[in-house]
Design a protein that fits this description.
Blueprint (H helix, E strand, L loop, with lengths): L1 H51 L2 H4 L11 H7 L12 E5 L6 E5 L8 H6 L16 E9 L3 E8 L5 E8 L6 H13 L9 E6 L3 E7 L3 E2 H7 L6 H19 L13 E3 L5 E3 L19 H4 L4 H4 L8 H16 L10 H12 L29 H4 L9 H8 L10 H5 L55
Helix pairs in contact: 7-10, 10-13
Length: about 475
């Protein structure tokens, strides 16, 4: 009997222990859930407080941020942006238990008074770069197929600027070409390259803000017909080659060199502008009813259909511009079409063949039977004023080579004897330094008698005389 009682007592004790253990585990799980819930509430409360109460001290309204920085700001605000459509729920994932807790925002659809006041359009703001209202349009300078150029004034610093307004609703990827030009010019810092000050982007337009340069080489030569002063020709050509050497060293081609794309400041600085036929015009220039003039400075290899462009493409244009500055007329003024343009070139330089131009027969538009067979001439026979300037004919002949690989590079041209009478300090200037920072280097007055200066020993200042060769 005692054994039975002991056995029953032992079973009761065992059941009681199991029950106590079960209850203990249950209460433990309940306590753990409560702790986790409290932790979640604390985290949610902190996040809600940080995002709502301290919002105006961390996140600024987009309309007060410069256009060029909006993309970065929008990207950082993508997780919780009070200026977008208010969310009814926000999900938060805890790494500890991988659980998702949903909560409703108490201020959904409401805006902090500070934020609302800060973003009010009626608030007075000072002009800033990157804003359309920071520039005042003064007058229209020119208009193209998809862009208009205005003379403007900066409200930030009061300086004159050239505003190139590109209409984005046009077809054929116009914005892309404009972006290419802007991106390219942003990285080019040189005294002989037009400076891009600012970029303004709106829904309707893309505006490129350039330094204002009051004229170009075409207008300058029109104002001073009959050829420019020989010393001025030399300084203009030196600056042109200096700018080209800079971009060529960076594997950039201009591809559309002509007097209209070479700006001339009131101090005589020459600046390269409008980078590439496929790119947007970057500065004020003449508007033409046809593209015949562009052909005047296009190399024969391109006219014949070559697509293997290299730096020698630009050097042909340099030769044409050099001759035009000295002679006072365009070197090859074709009046009809590509055929006429090539005939004018071959009349002076000779009709090419495989001996003088290896590979010319493989060019798409070269048909020997279509061209008159001309023998090459001395350049002075075509442009007599070249003979009046020391080494000018030799330099021009090394630039105006039909075979592209025979053309002198910009860097090599800067070392030509034609420039030997210039002050040595010109070759030591930093990229952003103007040649006119060198003492006694300055433009000479252009007069009707300027041609009398050819062939004489002219100086570029006291103590600097021409070398005789």
């Amino acid at each position: 009997m005692c054994d039975m009682i002991d056995s029953q007592s032992a079973e009761k004790i065992s059941r009681m222990k199991k029950l106590r253990r079960t209850l203990s585990e249950s209460f433990g799980r309940i306590a753990l859930k409560k702790e986790d819930s409290s932790f979640d509430e604390i985290c949610v409360t902190k996040m809600s407080t940080r995002n709502c109460q301290g919002m105006d001290s961390v996140i600024k309204p987009l309309d007060t941020i410069p256009e060029d920085k909006k993309v970065r700001v929008q990207r950082t605000q993508s997780s919780f942006d009070p200026f977008e459509k208010p969310a009814n729920q926000v999900k938060r994932v805890h790494s500890e238990n991988n659980a998702c807790i949903n909560f409703k925002t108490s201020s959904a659809g409401k805006e902090s008074p500070k934020v609302r006041r800060h973003s009010s359009p009626s608030s007075p703001t000072s002009p800033k770069f990157g804003k359309a209202d920071s520039y005042e349009k003064l007058e229209k300078l020119g208009e193209g197929s998809y862009a208009t150029v205005y003379k403007g004034k900066s409200k930030v610093n009061g300086k004159l600027v050239a505003l190139k307004v590109i209409r984005l609703q046009e077809e054929e990827g116009t914005p892309f070409t404009a972006i290419r030009e802007a991106s390219l010019l942003k990285g080019l810092k040189h005294a002989n390259i037009v400076l891009l000050h600012d970029i303004i982007h709106t829904k309707e337009t893309l505006t490129l803000v350039f330094e204002y340069v009051h004229t170009d080489l075409c207008q300058y030569m029109d104002k001073h017909p009959g050829g420019l002063h020989p010393e001025n020709v030399k300084l203009f050509l030196f600056q042109l080659l200096r700018g080209l050497s800079y971009i060529h060293q960076r594997y950039i081609l201009h591809r559309d060199l002509k007097p209209q794309n070479l700006l001339i400041s009131d101090t005589g600085e020459l600046k390269l502008a409008d980078f590439g036929l496929a790119r947007a015009k970057s500065v004020p220039s003449h508007t033409y009813s046809n593209e015949v003039v562009t052909l005047w400075y296009r190399p024969p290899d391109v006219l014949l259909g070559s697509t293997e462009y290299s730096t020698c493409l630009d050097m042909w244009g340099v030769g044409c511009i050099f001759v035009e500055m000295i002679q006072g007329v365009a070197a090859f003024p074709g009046m009809k079409d590509i055929q006429d343009q090539l005939e004018r070139i071959f009349l002076v330089l000779g009709t090419p063949n495989e001996d003088t131009w290896p590979g010319v027969h493989s060019l798409p538009h070269f048909k020997p039977e279509r061209f008159t067979q001309y023998s090459p001439k001395n350049l002075r026979q075509a442009w007599n004023k070249l003979s009046c300037v020391n080494h000018a004919e030799d330099l021009a002949s090394k630039l105006l080579q039909c075979f592209p690989k025979n053309r002198l590079s910009a860097q090599a041209a800067l070392s030509h004897e034609y420039f030997s009478d210039l002050p040595p300090r010109l070759w030591e200037l930093t990229d952003m330094s103007s040649i006119f920072t060198v003492p006694n280097v300055r433009l000479q007055p252009e007069t009707g008698e300027s041609m009398r200066a050819f062939g004489k020993n002219n100086s570029f200042g006291k103590g600097v005389s021409n070398s005789k060769h």
